[in-house]
From TrEMBL, chain A:
Residue ranges annotated for the SUF system FeS cluster assembly SufBD N-terminal domain, each copy included: 50-204
Stretches assigned to the SUF system FeS cluster assembly SufBD core domain: 212-453
InterPro entries assigned to the protein according to its UniProt record, in alphabetical order: Fe-S_cluster_assembly_SufBD, SUF_FeS_clus_asmbl_SufB, SUF_FeS_clus_asmbl_SufBD_core, SUF_FeS_clus_asmbl_SufBD_sf, SufBD_N
Protein name according to UniProt: Cysteine desulfurase
Source species: Mangrovimonas yunxiaonensis
Family: Belongs to the iron-sulfur cluster assembly SufBD family.
Automatic annotation (TrEMBL), chain B:
Organism: Mangrovimonas yunxiaonensis
Family: Belongs to the iron-sulfur cluster assembly SufBD family.
PANTHER family in the cross-refs: PROTEIN ABCI7, CHLOROPLASTIC
Name listed for the protein in its UniProt record: Fe-S cluster assembly protein SufD
Domain SUF system FeS cluster assembly SufBD core: 174-404
Classification via InterPro entries: Fe-S_cluster_assembly_SufBD, SUF_FeS_clus_asmbl_SufBD_core, SUF_FeS_clus_asmbl_SufBD_sf, SUF_FeS_clus_asmbl_SufD, SufBD_N
Residues in SUF system FeS cluster assembly SufBD N-terminal domain copies: 5-167
NCBIfam families given in the database record: sufD
GO biological process, one term: iron-sulfur cluster assembly
């Protein structure tokens, strides 16, 4: 046997690198497909989590194993194979494209219509971006302002490391591991997400969205968000983006938990525009999300959502009105086009006295899509003087789509007042005629009417997003007018 | 033995009495199989989420009463709308009582299901209509399997039936616990008009469970007016399955007045197979104690230019539970549909519960569909107004509740029923006011 020399080693290393190419180190950071206890442990280990977190994940995994995938939603899709998914993949460091020229022109077109700046476009499409001095300085200023006020805003993995007492106390307190199939799955395998804590009496000086858009990296398909507003504090949080997001992951199962302690207020806005599949209904993201907020005394939680993307949406942002005088609000616009399916709504659980809830849901269906509102208003026997107002309006465009309403109203208290109303209609020919006659073409007229229809909800969005969301509605419905 | 097993095994004995050649023999065999497979619905079924049958299924019900019981007309007179002339089909413990009844074959057929099933002259109609509207759910299948008696009404073309038809089922309490499964078939041909009143009444405190199926066919331009009066005693439970198939330009309306019974479940299904027709579903529910009333309605709009109106009012006291589960389906072809659904409720006790689920499923774009649901209290200022004018609290409340439910009565076409319902409401609210407003 010949001697193993330094030269041999060098030779070997060379060939190795050649063999595996550039992707080697990224590949090694991806766990094999499938899900079992070892995988859950491995995820936890990779994130260097403390033992209690690992145990918490395992507990969730065991619960998940005994659960069945829910089938009650009014959607049809091919069930994902949970053993064919890789549950952990380190964030992709390599830019997807080297310049904007490589990006799908259709995507760029949409960006332009939304009026998104060139730098941001690059960032959103995953193009390598030169460091823009401006945004970095902005981000640092933001960080400084937040830190001064004692606001914690970081990724959930960071929070597990640095603020374990807060995470331990609140994670799973609103959405327990056993809540539902997807919540259990998320609890077992969540990769990352956001954590936010607003201390007592602090009013968060900015929309956390602004900060978010500059800093947010891809958070993966199993996102976990935890927002805690301590007594008397206020925060407005925006998740998502108006820009279309092309994501390879088919299944998204996120969990969002909001905790509003006494006198606190949380405003949570979502704009979701994930890939809805092509015009024939092929592909597209499945969005199965569990979102819930807990209101203590005099607290208020307000959910606002604009849903235009995803092939299948299954989402019910809810409020548990536990404390007396607490308030829950839900404002939603769900737009479905082509073969999209949305089953979305809210749950308002009235437990405390004098609790109030408002639900305004606007569904717009076009093409061959199906749009359902499913809501629950539950008044418990001790929830005296509970008040609820629900309004669900559906707009149908074309005769191949469907709009459905499934409200559940359960009342056990004689002093409560509950109102629910729903209407379904189409855009009137007289309305279009009126616009045409004044020189507004049909496409613009429809946009005008749709915006009027959704105004109640758009008004609830933070200013800058309201404008973008309005444009987004127009784009989502483009070409749906026959 | 569980009631389900008992039913399935009794069917075999029952089957021996059936004519093997009868056209419905196969239907019955199939139906018992469906029931055996599905069993009684449980709270896991979406349609039974808020209503549990458990408390009513625990009794050891007799399925075939052994003896016939005669009852005196004077004892039951108060349960009839006796102040008008009418045809009557009266059953006592599931058996037809010929001397209490008044049937006819003159121009129209108002007679018995058992006769229709056995006589050849009805065979064509029976084959054409029997079990053609009822769905394959477990309770309807159970009824189909055991159905042997009930009302058979056939109104040929161009007839206006000059007096209403009353179908009344009495349970005498001769059996410790009795299960009844009446089956009614009502066929109304072109341009005909009929009014029908249905009632189930138990005369003692022995438990009774009725699982009734009524199939109604309203052909072209027919008008069917159906009134269900439900004011049974505290141990009687009723599962009422009604299926109405309408053809073009027909009008069908069903009014349900639920004031009594331990558990009442109304499955009311309208299928519109034609254009330009109208369906009306209205109800008043006033209950207390531990009563449970569940209205489960379906209106299926299949063709264009049709209308449907639903209006259900409920007042719930003590530990009563009310359920409303209304569903409107508008198919893709059913353009220009106008569907309206409303459910208003008042809770007058802290232990009462109301669960309401008004659903819309719409696949057509050029439609006007709306629904509304409210749960609230009596208007304090109106109460104050009346009390300041010397009307006692109880009467003032009763007046307001009456006013709340009154608009359901507006579409009742038989004045005597209106008067009767007014009395029942006054009685139920514990006041002595003649609501002859």
């Amino acid at each position: 046997m010949s001697k193993y020399t330094e030269d041999d080693l060098r030779e070997e290393l060379k060939t190795k690198e050649y063999e595996y190419g550039f992707y080697t180190d990224i590949e090694s950071d991806t766990l094999p497909v499938g899900l079992n206890e070892d995988i859950v442990r491995a995820i936890s280990k990779k994130k260097e989590e403390p033992e209690w977190m690992t145990q918490w994940r395992l507990e969730a995994f065991r619960i998940w194993q005994d659960m069945e995938e829910p089938e009650w939603a009014n959607v049809t899709y091919k069930k994902p194979d949970f053993q064919a998914i890789s549950y952990y993949s380190a964030p992709n460091k390599k830019p997807k494209y080297n310049s904007l020229d490589e990006v799908d022109p259709e995507l760029l077109d949409t960006f332009n219509k939304l009026g998104i700046s060139l730098d941001e476009q690059k960032k959103l499409a995953g193009v390598a971006v030169d460091i823009v001095m401006d945004s970095v300085s902005v981000a640092t200023t933001f960080k400084k302002t937040l830190a001064e006020k004692g606001i914690i805003f970081c990724s959930i993995s960071e929070a597990i490391q640095e603020h374990p007492e807060l995470v331990k106390k609140y994670i799973g307190s609103v959405v327990p591991q056993k809540d539902n199939f997807y919540a259990a799955l998320n609890s077992a395998v969540f990769s990352d997400g956001s954590f936010c804590y607003i201390p007592k009496g602090v009013r968060c000086p900015m929309e956390l969205s602004t900060y978010f858009r500059i800093n947010q990296a891809g958070t993966g398909q199993f996102e976990r968000t935890l927002v805690i507003a301590d007594e008397g504090s206020y925060v407005s949080y925006l998740e998502g983006c108006t820009a279309p997001t092309r994501d390879e992951n088919q299944l998204h199962a996120a969990v969002v938990e909001l905790i509003a302690l006494d006198n606190a207020e949380i405003k949570y806005s979502t704009v979701q525009n994930w890939y809805p599949g092509n015009a024939e209904g092929k592909g597209g993201v499945f969005n199965f999300v569990t979102k819930r907020g807990l209101c203590e005394k005099n607290a208020k939680i307000s959910w606002t959502q604009v849903e235009t993307g995803s092939a299948v949406t299954w989402k019910y942002p809810s409020c548990v009105l536990k404390g007396d005088n607490s308030v829950g609000e839900f404002y939603s616009i769900a737009v479905t086009n082509n073969y999209q399916q949305a089953d979305t709504g809210t749950k308002m659980i009235h437990l405390g006295k004098n609790t109030k809830s408002t639900i305004i849901s606007k569904g717009i269906s076009a093409g061959k899509s199906q749009n359902s509102y499913r809501g629950l208003v539950q008044v418990h026997s001790r929830a005296e003087n509970a008040r609820n107002f629900s309004q669900c309006d559906s707009l149908l465009m074309g005769n191949e789509c469907g709009a459905h309403t499934f409200p559940y109203i359960e009342n056990k208290n004689q002093t409560s007042q509950i109102e629910h109303e729903a209407t379904t209609s189409k855009i009137g020919e007289d309305q279009i005629f009126y616009c045409n006659q004044r020189g507004i073409d049909t496409e613009k007229a429809i946009a005008l009417i749709v915006n009027g229809f959704s105004k109640d909800v758009l008004n609830k969005l933070p200013m800058e997003f309201a404008v973008e969301a309005q444009k987004l509605l127009e784009i989502s419905l483009e070409g749906s007018v026959g | 033995m569980e009631l389900k097993d008992k039913l399935v095994s009794s069917f075999m004995a029952f089957e021996d009495h059936l004519e093997a050649s009868s056209p419905i023999h196969g239907i019955k065999n199939q139906a018992i199989k469906t029931f055996e497979q599905k069993g009684f619905p449980s709270k896991k079924d979406e349609a039974w989420k808020y209503t549990s049958l458990k408390p009513v299924l625990k009794h050891n019900y007799s399925l075939f009463p052994k003896q016939e019981t005669a009852i005196d007309y004077n004892d039951i007179k108060k349960y009839l709308i006796h102040d008008i002339d009418s045809y009557k089909i009266i059953f006592v413990d599931g058996k037809y009582s010929s001397y209490l009844s008044q049937t006819t074959h003159e121009g129209i057929d108002v007679c018995l299901m058992s006769a229709a099933l056995s006589k050849t002259k009805y065979r064509l109609i029976v084959e054409h209509y029997f079990n053609k509207a009822a769905t394959q759910d477990s309770l309807s299948s159970l009824n189909t399997a055991f159905s042997s008696e009930g009302a058979y009404i056939h109104i040929p073309k161009n007839k206006l039936v000059e007096k209403p038809i009353q179908i009344i089922h009495f349970a005498t309490g001769n059996e410790a616990a009795l299960m009844l499964q009446p089956r009614n078939l009502i066929v109304v041909d072109e341009n005909s008009h009929v009014q029908i009143i249905e009632r189930h009444q138990s005369l003692t405190d022995n438990p009774v469970l009725t699982n009734s199926v009524t199939e109604i066919f309203a052909n072209k331009r027919a008008i069917v007016d159906y009134y269900k009066i439900q004011n049974d005693n505290q141990n009687a439970s009723l599962i009422d399955n009604t299926f109405i198939k309408q053809k073009q330009e027909s009008h069908a309306s069903v009014h349900t007045f639920s004031f009594g019974g331990k558990l009442t479940r109304n499955n009311l299904n309208f299928y519109q197979n034609g254009e330009r027709m109208d369906s009306t579903l209205k109800g008043i529910t006033i209950i207390g104690d531990k009563q449970h009333v569940d209205h489960n309605t379906l209106v299926h709009h299949i063709e264009p230019n049709c209308e449907s109106h639903q209006d259900y009012k409920g007042i719930f006291g003590d530990s009563a539970t009310g359920v409303f589960n209304g569903k409107v389906v508008v198919e893709k072809e059913a353009q220009k549909t106008n569907a309206y659904q409303s459910n208003n409720n008042i809770l007058v006790s802290d232990k009462a519960t109301i669960n309401s689920k008004p659903q819309l499923e719409i696949f057509a774009d050029d439609v006007k569909c709306s629904h509304g649901c409210t749960i609230g209290q009596l208007d304090e200022s109106a109460m104050f107004y009346m009390r300041s004018r010397g009307i006692p609290k109880k009467e003032a409340r009763a007046l307001l509740m009456y006013a709340f439910s009154n608009n359901v009565l507006e579409s009742v076409k038989i004045p005597e029923i209106k008067t009767r319902i007014n009395k029942l409401i006054a009685n139920k609210l514990g006041v002595n006011i003649g609501f002859d407003l």
